Amino acid sequence: AEVCVIIPAAGSGTRLGEPVPKAFVDLDGATIIERCVDNIPESLGASIVVVVPADLVEHARELLPGVAVVPGGAHRSDSVRAGIAAAGDARILLVHDAARPLTPAHVFTRVVDAVAAGHPAVVPGVPVVDTLKQVAPDASGHELVTRTVDREELRAVQTPQGFTREALLRAHADDSGLATDDAGLAERCGIPVHIVPGDPLAMKITTPWDLRIIRDVVRETAA
Ligand code: CTP
Ligand code: MG
């Protein structure tokens, strides 16, 4: 395939606090990872690689027929590299969090179209609605506001993040393990990163509150 979607799903979901790793939590009759894979638009003609905890590889293969499943690593970027290694020679690589299972098709196509148009790295982003303050500890250790950030200049970024194969390989060649997204690694080695409009439905499930919202959306959509 020309496009490969790599889905890191090997995290433990510590902040969610469910008894199973986050990607294997039930969302109204299907797991988060199943819904995430089902939600990738057929029109991309993409191959799919899912990266899961080592002890869940066999289970994931049963849940996800037709999908390549490989074991992940300790950090998200280790898992992404395991996915890249299994991605074959696709020209465009998308990295998409399992934790964003309701991402709309138009977000995928916008990202792929922008990479195909010649941008080496493209991420979906949405405006920030909250007012943001930068803080630092004061003399007694309490948080003191040092300035108000101009939110007009900020975007909250989502996935799928799209790359040319070359850009993603370069981004991951010198990873110190701290980046929370792949575009962050690309930025650090001077690869230009462009933003396309994201979507509220591409929200990430991180906390129990997020899961509650996503469950409501899934039920409403099914009804
Ligand atoms: N991920 C991964 N391998 C890791 C860590 C994270 O594949 N070692 C994946 C997660 O499964 C998730 C995505 O990266 O789909 C985004 O990470 P995050 O939302 O932080 O998920 P978790 O790491 O599972 O959650 P937490 O940080 O609360 O433990
Ligand atoms: Mg994490």
Automatic annotation (TrEMBL):
Recorded catalytic activity of this chain's protein: 2-C-methyl-D-erythritol 4-phosphate + CTP + H(+) = 4-CDP-2-C-methyl-D-erythritol + diphosphate
Residue numbers marked as site, Transition state stabilizer: R15, K22
InterPro entries membership: IspD, IspD/TarI, IspD/TarI_cytidylyltransf_bact, Nucleotide-diphossugar_trans
Q: In which pathway does it act?
A: Isoprenoid biosynthesis; isopentenyl diphosphate biosynthesis via DXP pathway; isopentenyl diphosphate from 1-deoxy-D-xylulose 5-phosphate: step 2/6
- Keywords, ordered alphabetically: Isoprene biosynthesis, Nucleotidyltransferase, Transferase
What Gene3D superfamilies does the annotation carry?
Spore Coat Polysaccharide Biosynthesis Protein SpsA, Chain A
- The domain of life is Bacteria
Q: Which GO terms describe its biological process?
A: isopentenyl diphosphate biosynthetic process, methylerythritol 4-phosphate pathway
* E.C. code: 2.7.7.60
Show which residues form the site (Positions MEP for the nucleophilic attack).
R151, K204
**Annotated Gene Ontology MF terms?**
2-C-methyl-D-erythritol 4-phosphate cytidylyltransferase activity
Name the job this protein performs: Catalyzes the formation of 4-diphosphocytidyl-2-C-methyl-D-erythritol from CTP and 2-C-methyl-D-erythritol 4-phosphate (MEP).
Q: Which family does it belong to?
A: Belongs to the IspD/TarI cytidylyltransferase family. IspD subfamily.
Specify the protein name. Answer: 2-C-methyl-D-erythritol 4-phosphate cytidylyltransferase
Give the originating organism: Gordonia alkanivorans CGMCC 6845
Gene, per the UniProt record: ispD
